[in-house]
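Question (not urgent): is this output format expected?
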Amino acid sequence: MKSNGSTHLLYRVNSCYHANKEIVSEKLTNSMEHQHKVFDVAILGAGLGGLIAATRLAKENRSVLLLKEKRYRSSYSRDGYRFVPFSNFSEKLIQTNLPKKIPFPADHRESKKGGDKPKQEVSFQVILPEARIDLYGERSLLQREWRREFPEELNQIENFYAELERIKQVLKEIRSKAPPGPHFPIWNRSFLKRWLSFDGLPKGGTDQWLSPFSPEFKKFIELQMISHGNLRADSFPIPLVSHLLLDGEGDEWEESVDLEKVTEGMIEKFTQSGGKVEEIESVEKVEMKWREGVSVFLKGGKPTYRSRSLVLNSPLHSLLGLFGKKGKALSRWGKKVRPRYVLVPFFLGIHEKVIPVGMRDRLVSLYDLQKPYEGGNLLFLRLSRKGDKNQAPEGKRALTVQSLMSCGGLQKDSISDLQDGVMNHLKHLFPFLENHIEFIDRKWADDQMDCWSYPHFLYEVDSDFRWRRGIVPIRISKNLYFSGRENFPYLGLEGEMISGWLVGEEISGR
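Got this back:
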């Protein structure tokens, strides 16, 4: 019996040895295959724009490799609460025509179990020192807000919105003549056709058009523009204001879009179409050669990936140091659009009873008109749905607060100082908040803000920009492409989707 048992044990040991040897051999083989295989396209970063381009190209039987940062996490959970940071309100409220243009996975809404309710009439709420405005899609209800909060300049406001409405009709006419596809409002015609065309859109920006208005109303418009996109500017083109503020009037909206689910669904579509995903720690350098394509070298002596084309799908400033002297074209665009602020998220678990009557689930609040935006003076807030147990325990709400910090000040003590300013602002918005806080957590920010995939920035440009042509081009050089928020930072989620589609279209046509 002992002999048989020993024989059986020896058989199992040998079997395990050979099985493990095969697994190790298979991993080494796969690693070597990736190391020597040249992909048609490699995509650095797993943002939505890059995923759209990757999925389109994979469906065309191109060999596509997606390099995804292993350490970056897009959500945070604690004690029954779930938090998802956001860069702009377009990530939480988008027009239904966008997913139709570029198919999203079917299940992209946040679960509404226990918290289901009719579609909200308000996209978000703006709170100023002397005003609180609910942004209704229906014009008559929005006019009621103007009359209540800005009675002394009502005629000026009516005339301003009448002009925005006229511009909206001009944009509709332009759209009707544009080629089919998800490009609008981006103008993807040739330079000659753009130069010869007259679109009838007015010139000038908000600095000129709003000069007669009160400082409070000027901030009201500016904060709406910032909330829709990722751009902080002293002046926005008036046609862009019309597109962002009025384009969705009368349309249906998708509420509570869960971008984490969207991303997971897009990755699944991508792999089902033959694409490959590799999780990596970081990139050491990128070499570009005219004939041989692009080589991506990972830190720590990891495998090297080669491709004929490379798509950059992470914040531009975090990638500039990878290209050495050959990154001049990229550096030039990096100087054109720069991150002005980093959005730092704080996660709070709070009791339902502390939320003031009339407060919306999404709001932007400015505490002092005279002070800069950083230091907790400007907050973007998002409350989980009342009764949604997938986001917070019963009787509680998950509160995500985004505040601004000047780029370059990412030290831990700076975040600690920022937290003090945020809490002072929150106490102004939520009376007796201190007595109803479960916790305030900045762990996610401490862990994630130094990741090269971190997407939460507010940008500025060094000069006036032509909004229908974008800022950073889709194609940087012969085999280098860019699909990120800096393409069209003022369009928010819409801009990301358009950039991904245009990159896929550009590579597909080669």
